[in-house]
Amino acid sequence: MLASAGQRDGEPVAAEIAGQIEQVIVSAGLAEEVRLPSERDLAQLTGASRPTVSQAIRILIVKGLVESRRGSGAYVRRKPETSLAATVSLMLSLNKESVVHLNDLRLWLESDGITQAITRASPAEVDAGEAALRRLAASVGNTAAWISADTQFHATLVRASHNPFLASIYESVHETLINYEYRNWIGSGTVPDWLRPSEAAGLTALHAPILAAVRDRDEKAGRIAVLRHHHVMAQHLAEVAAHSAG
């Protein structure tokens, strides 16, 4: 049973509720893919308001312990990569200017991962990539769901490299970057301009060529698609940095 947080609202209470939910996930050994109770049920269990519970869930999404599935709810996401992502995130928080270097590392890891996936991916892994792309497209307009779906899409393809260490390091780096990119919108529950439904076609067109290259076994196309995605992400990160500086 979760301890009651009363009717207090605000970020400190949300962090407290997030800590309680995290404790339940860890102490109960909840398996990955287990669906958490609805926000309404969690609000009743904790005595907090639904907005506070919603913010607590967003905190757990940023930490990588929970993923959001649009129209379905929040699910447990317990992986060894979580602690590595926390370390990378700490390094970034200590030196925000290093985000450019971290994004370069993400490019190098994904480039190698996709190159290997092009030669090693099984039909089932390509199908998993197709499913991840559909989920990604359906998440446009929902920042929390997009973070989970975007990480799932890229990680699914890099895991097809059949190198678990490369996949784990890549996922940690990607997760840290995307959480940094969207942290302000996650905190406020809003949507950035480039993630609005009107941009859905462009976002799909940015990701689909990566999957197509793996499906078609086209290494050159894969490197071009990954590099194009990298440049767009670099632009978004530069906008975030400029906004933070202002």
Describe this structure in words.
The structure is a single chain. The protein has 246 residues and is mainly alpha-helical. It folds into 2 domains: 66 residues, Winged helix-like DNA-binding domain superfamily/Winged helix DNA-binding domain (Arc Repressor Mutant, subunit A), CATH 1.10.10; 165 residues, Four Helix Bundle (Hemerythrin (Met), subunit A), CATH 1.20.120.530. It contains 10 helices and 2 strands. Strands 1-2 form a two-stranded antiparallel sheet. Helix 3 runs antiparallel to helix 8 and helix 4 crosses helix 8. About 2% of the residues have low confidence.
Quick summary of this structure?
The chain has 246 residues and is mainly alpha-helical. It has 10 helices and 2 strands.
Task: Specify the overall morphology.
Answer: globular
CATH architecture of the largest domain: Up-down Bundle
Structure classification: mainly alpha
Helix content: over 70%
Strand arrangement, major sheet: 1-2
Taken together, the total number of domains comes to 2
CATH class of the largest domain: Mainly Alpha
The low-confidence runs, each spanning 5 or more residues with pLDDT under 50, are 5-9
Instruction: Work out the radius of gyration.
Output: 18 Å
Strand coverage percent: under 5%
Largest sheet: 2 strands, antiparallel
CATH superfamily of the largest domain: GntR ligand-binding domain-like
- In quaternary terms, these chains amount to single chain
Task: List its traits.
Arc Repressor Mutant, subunit A; two-stranded antiparallel ribbon; Four Helix Bundle (Hemerythrin (Met), subunit A); mainly alpha; 246 residues
